[in-house]
Amino acid sequence: MRIVKGVVSSNIDPKSSARFSAKFDEWGDDEKPVIYTSPMYRVNGGGILAPPAYEDIILAVYDEDTEEYYYHSTVVDIELATEVSKIPGFKEIGDKNAYSKDGRPVKIQFQNQVGAGIDITKNHRPAPETQINSVTLKSEGGKQIGADDSPGVEAAFVMNQHGDGLIVKGDPDDLYPARCVNITSKGQQDFTVMESSMDLTVVEGRDITIENRSTGAMAQTPSEDWWPNGNLPCKRWGGIYLRSESGDISIAANADTGESEQDGRIFIVTPKARIQITETGAIQIDSTDAIRIKSSSDINMEGANINIKATGSLKMESGGATSILSGGNVDVDGTEIHLKPTSPPEPIPPLSEQSDLDLNDYYE
Asked: Residue 354: its pLDDT value, please?
């Protein structure tokens, strides 16, 4: 057997047998069938399969006894490439990062002809060149799955060609703490559980924060005929919505450590109003505007003592009978007391005329 050099004239193989055709220097333009060989392959079982491409320069082993050619390897040399391959920008190694700045090879690559495959990089050259130690699986379009042990990186990642993806950190760096998981995307994110539950839990850590920081710069305001509250503008950005189609929504603060009188409070806050439920069970409502309570049925108030104070007028009106029942004295103190005034007091406007509840931006 002996080594001969040739060029692949065709890698079309209708039988999918990994054979291809080549022209060898000693045979001129005569095409010869070449049997593909692999450093690791089990027939019908898989392994490394990478037949050379059209016009690749190859070395083959020629068996003089059987007159058969066995593929040996591909020659990586621009000077030996065919004229068709000598186009502007054509290089032996298309990846500019396959070698370090001082010309040392730093990558092991298993790729197809368009760069899709596996990169194993180990570049420990000193500064100013960045030290790299990574394994990356890349697609032709730039999507990547990788594990990177490089200083300052220390992460595993899944990334698309636009930089959206998932990062799982090992050691900390300037951007992320140790052992964190970061998910970033410019587009929408959906989390769906089809037949089970979803849990978001912090164990011996810090807080859970759900925050919408959108300013509407990238959002669109719905057309005016879609606004749920008439002339009040509707905005479909910046909101946070919790909704249950067939169950309860519960907000519970169960902190009862006894270490602080401020444990276990619940706050509902707007720029001009505040509702606070304390750990002792007290409920406090503060507002710079009106507070309105409306019900189509009864409104019941019960407590040890009930105190009502108006800095202006105090009005009470009943469409039916009015009853005052006291187990003790009933004291009425005023400049004048009119049990039946000559002119009736001004009626209290119905609550529905004072303010109707607005719908949210989703007509709810």
From this structure: 46
